[in-house]
Q: What sequence folds into this?
């Protein structure tokens, strides 16, 4: 604990300074005496200092730079309290020496507080009924903690900023704990030496203290527990020299402290976040949607021989506003790679002719299967049966597919069956009929719809991997993006068994097909197919929807089931244009701090990694989405297999989820 | 959409002695009617062309027994084999399961047996399993004999009913039968499975609910 020292503190301050115990916490006056001008690096208002007694006071928490050192500084907001002239200061309670005298007037007055980060060991964020707590733990065996309360629950934001300024390691076991890298500054050494002067371990000092520090580095948990027992010893055997109440309280609080760091400290439990770990996003720029690609603009971009010029500009228009519905029939064939942008009318006519022939050739293959053949061909039979089951219930509420014996349902069936012959290994997986339905509705023509579907599947086939590797990768990438875009929300999800992002499974599997009307899904897909402004824009779109929903989730304190239900129930309630604008805004925010983005994020949005390393973590790997579907079959040598080691294929995804979150 | 059949009765007042909450998962081959059974039970509706379930759906429904109100948290899953790997996420910690097959499709009955085995091996040891032979309205095209399924259910200690989400036949009944069979006593049901009753009703009056069941 940090607490006020005795009122007549001038003398004590000198004393404390002489034994260096107050190094971690110094009064602002002290610093100002030295005449240093500080630079404010990070600042957060409305933060409450949780003092030892139930005395709370709001103020500003900042990270300040004075000279070479950085300090956590807290200053009370203007308070209308009679300030007596007594000289107060905050000081660390020395483990034994400083006695504890508190007057009422002290509690009514909040002195500024300053912690040299060199002397801080770790910090941890915890959620409480009223907002979040940020607790700093001091280095050394005094086990001092100081806690700040963020009533708005946005301690994460402050932490994120801190991580940009301080070198910290995140504990793997406790995701809310950050260990501050130790810097062997002169001051630290002085502080350590001061422990020796404490004479806390009279039988071995100073050797015992150095030994402790060494042990602490290697085995912090055991070493600290050892130190506790020694403090107890000191308490028991040297009662006259120790203020037992303060020591007892220290021990008690350290052991009981809800934010206690002790149990989580272990050498290999940390991952390096790096000195510039979580960059701070600038505010989101306003983004407006544009008009759809017009007939005139399309005509203008089409050369006399039919080549589409200005493809980049056309794609930009499509990204910002989509395609005029009357042009979709034509433009989609380009977007989906059926036609090349550079082809002439004549070439396209020729291509189409051969593609139509090829389609009917493949269709003939399954059509001509005799019952006997079928009976001996179970893989084929299985695929056929799956398709039969699904086409009957795909978009039957739309007039295009409604009613009994609707020929369009048969077309859906034919195209999917032909796709089975085109890519037998992938075959048919639930969800594919959803992807085909709007294409067929638009194209009407069976062969054209088929080839557009082939193009669409080339983009999305990893969604249907046998081992779910493609889905798992996207869910992981979404989590990675969110952790930069919205650390607080990501933290919330992690805390509510939802860090697996599984509630977005349906969104991603069928690219929001179940979330929008047919008209809107066409608009959304063509925006995605523009491949602008970056790869995986659909993940930013997910993040944009979640951004709109998070307040509701917070308010209801939703857990895994509630989040999934809420997200499922969003179907047909998401506003397309504003969500697209927000998603683009998120992209612009990221690009504003491009150089600060970690490689895990850079690769997701198509930026070159800054520090390409071989065999890096799963987040840094990115799968080629444009790969040939035929490569993605039963047991893809996927990211998942790598990250989960021995767990193979099918169970891996489930395990991956269950291990961590269920 | 037909609207007859009605949803299960809701608890009419606070007079019930206990409120128990159970996690129930629906499993079974694709297109056997899992979602339709849930929709009938929860909303009293039926859609002839109920769309396939992607990922999972989550619904709740409450039924009243004599002295107990049972709240089901129902997880409705995607049936296709490709998504099999996700199923453990749903049946983990479930106190009840309905394994559904289509009486007009012998393969779906075979698949149901595989699910039974999997649950017996991997789910909570005390899980109450019910077997539902759905699409009983299509008895003309029956492929699975009722006796055969009943015998199988008896052998394996399963509840069994032939149901029809379309006509509502036995839909509420099968959920009620499960509710009756579920242990209403924390000590009994809580034994041996760490995850049981993990989820509490946070939105409801928390004083009334704890674990599986509270008094």
A:
């Amino acid at each position: 604990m940090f607490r006020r020292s005795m009122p007549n503190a001038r003398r004590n301050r000198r004393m404390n300074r002489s034994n260096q115990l107050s190094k971690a916490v110094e009064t602002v006056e002290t610093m100002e005496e030295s005449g240093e001008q500080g630079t404010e690096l990070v600042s957060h208002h409305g933060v409450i200092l949780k003092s030892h007694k139930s005395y709370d006071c709001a103020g500003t928490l900042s990270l300040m730079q004075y000279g070479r050192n950085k300090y956590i500084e807290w200053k009370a907001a203007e308070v209308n309290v009679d300030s007596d002239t007594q000289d107060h200061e905050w000081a660390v309670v020395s483990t034994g020496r400083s006695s504890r005298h508190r007057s009422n007037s002290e509690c009514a007055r909040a002195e500024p507080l300053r912690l040299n980060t060199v002397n801080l060991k770790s910090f941890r964020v915890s959620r409480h009924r009223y907002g979040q707590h940020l607790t700093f733990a001091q280095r050394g065996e005094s086990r001092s903690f100081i806690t700040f309360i963020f009533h708005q629950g946005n301690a994460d934001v402050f932490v994120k900023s801190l991580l940009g300024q301080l070198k910290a390691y995140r504990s793997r076991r406790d995701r809310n704990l950050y260990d501050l890298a130790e810097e062997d500054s002169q001051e630290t050494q002085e502080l350590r030496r001061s422990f020796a002067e404490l004479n806390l371990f009279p039988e071995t000092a100073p050797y015992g203290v150095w030994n402790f520090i060494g042990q602490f580095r290697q085995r912090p948990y055991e070493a600290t527990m050892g130190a506790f027992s020694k403090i107890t010893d000191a308490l028991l055997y040297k009662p006259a020299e120790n203020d037992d109440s303060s020591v007892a309280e220290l021990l008690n609080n350290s052991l009981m402290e809800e934010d206690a760091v002790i149990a989580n400290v272990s050498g290999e439990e940390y991952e390096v976040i790096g000195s510039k770990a979580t960059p701070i996003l600038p505010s989101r720029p306003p983004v407006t949607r544009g008009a759809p690609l017009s007939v005139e603009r399309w005509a203008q971009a089409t050369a006399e021989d039919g080549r589409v010029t200005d493809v980049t500009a056309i794609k930009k228009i499509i990204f910002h506003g989509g395609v005029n519905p009357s042009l979709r029939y034509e433009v989609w064939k380009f977007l989906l790679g059926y036609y090349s942008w550079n082809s002439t009318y004549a070439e396209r006519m020729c291509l189409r002719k051969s593609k139509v022939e090829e389609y009917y050739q493949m269709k003939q293959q399954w059509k001509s299967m005799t019952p006997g053949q079928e009976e001996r061909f179970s893989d084929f039979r299985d695929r056929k049966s799956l398709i039969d089951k699904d086409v009957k219930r795909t978009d039957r509420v739309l007039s295009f597919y409604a009613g009994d014996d609707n020929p369009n349902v048969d077309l859906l069936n034919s195209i999917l069956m032909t796709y089975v012959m085109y890519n037998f290994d992938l075959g048919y997986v639930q969800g594919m009929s959803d992807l085909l339905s709007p294409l067929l509705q638009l194209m009407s023509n069976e062969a054209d719809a088929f080839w557009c579907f082939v193009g669409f599947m080339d983009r999305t086939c990893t969604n249907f991997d046998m081992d779910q590797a493609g889905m798992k990768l996207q869910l992981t990438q979404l989590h990675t993006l969110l952790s930069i875009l919205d650390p607080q929300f990501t933290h919330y999800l992690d805390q509510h068994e939802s860090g697996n992002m599984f509630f977005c499974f349906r969104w991603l599997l069928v690219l929001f097909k179940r979330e929008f009307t047919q008209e809107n899904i066409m608009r959304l897909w063509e925006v995605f197919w523009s491949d602008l402004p970056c790869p995986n824009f659909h993940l930013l779109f997910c993040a944009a929807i979640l951004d709109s929903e998070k307040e509701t989730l917070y308010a209801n304190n939703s857990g895994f089931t509630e989040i999934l239900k809420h997200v499922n129930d969003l179907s047909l309630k998401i506003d397309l244009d504003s969500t697209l604008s927000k998603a683009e805004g998120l992209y612009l925010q990221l690009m504003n701090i491009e150089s600060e983005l970690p490689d895990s994020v850079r690769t997701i949005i198509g930026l070159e990694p800054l520090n390409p390393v071989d065999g890096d973590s799963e987040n840094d790997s990115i799968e080629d989405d444009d790969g040939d579907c035929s490569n993605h079959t039963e047991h893809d040598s996927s990211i998942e297999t790598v990250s989960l080691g021995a767990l193979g294929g099918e169970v891996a995804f489930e395990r991956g989820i269950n291990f961590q979150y269920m | 959409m037909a609207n007859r059949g009605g949803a299960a009765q809701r608890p009419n007042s606070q007079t019930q002695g206990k409120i128990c909450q159970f996690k129930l998962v629906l499993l079974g081959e694709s297109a056997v009617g899992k979602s339709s059974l849930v929709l009938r039970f929860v909303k009293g509706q039926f859609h002839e062309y109920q769309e396939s379930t992607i990922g999972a759906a989550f619904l709740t429904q409450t039924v009243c027994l004599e002295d107990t109100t049972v709240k089901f948290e129902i997880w409705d899953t995607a049936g296709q084999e490709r998504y099999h790997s996700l199923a453990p996420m749903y049946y983990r910690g479930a106190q009840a399961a309905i394994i559904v097959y289509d009486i007009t499709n012998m393969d779906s009955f075979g698949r149901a047996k595989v699910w039974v085995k999997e649950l017996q091996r991997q789910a909570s040891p005390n899980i109450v399993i019910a077997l539902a032979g759905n699409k009983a309205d299509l008895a003309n095209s029956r492929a699975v004999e009722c006796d055969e399924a009943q015998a199988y259910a008896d052998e394996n200690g399963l509840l069994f009913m032939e149901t029809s989400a379309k006509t509502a036949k036995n839909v509420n009944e099968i959920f009620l039968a499960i509710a009756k069979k579920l242990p209403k006593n924390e000590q009994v049901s809580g034994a041996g499975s760490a995850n049981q009753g993990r989820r509490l009703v946070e939105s409801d009056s928390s004083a009334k609910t704890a674990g599986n069941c509270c008094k």
